[in-house]
Amino acid sequence: MKDAGHLFRFAGLFVVAFLVFLVVRGYVVPKTFGQYGHYRGAAIGEIAQYPVKFAGHQACESCHSDIADTKTKGAHAHVNCEACHGALFQNLPAPAQPKGNLYERFVALIVPPTPPDAPLLLHADDPTSVIPVKPDTLVLCARCHTASAAKLKSFPQVDPTVHMGGVPCETCHNPHSPAIGSDTSSSPTPAGTK
Asked: Using CA atoms, how far apart are residues 30 and 95, in angstroms rounded to an integer?
């Protein structure tokens, strides 16, 4: 036991390290962590304070009822408008709140601010003021419909280079009801244009 002093010093260092860990943990871990299991209790309230970004398909269909009728008859009936056309986000700043600990300050640094003058918001307020950019179907449709072994065999899949040959999908397919020969109330873009 003459070398027991080394063990006591090591045990003392361990206790000091544990106490330092507890102090640092108090500054870094949010106060509501663990309130509902392994989650922050205040997370839902904090997220709810940010402006709504997605308005839902009802916001678009209230004005664009003709396209909504075409879409409900086609294969894209359950695809939200904002999945292709982008989010109809509100141009509202997040409420300013004092950040209590290191974690919340870090989150405030990495959360991107809401972009100014949201074009789709302006479009909703005055449809003639801003006309949103029409998605490039050559790129957009390929995001979901490029052939992949991971997708269900019943899901429509193509090899874009072979199937399209550089021609936008809307040349042959109405994006809102893509089956060939379906309602083509929206005029297709001439081949090769975007």
From this structure: 19
Q: What is the pLDDT of residue 191?
A: 38
Higher pLDDT, 108 or 190: 108
- List the single range of 6-10, 118-122, 138-142, 155-159 with lowest mean pLDDT: 118-122
pLDDT in tens, 166-179: 888 888 888 888 88
**Interatomic CA distance for residues 29 and 40, integer angstroms:** 9
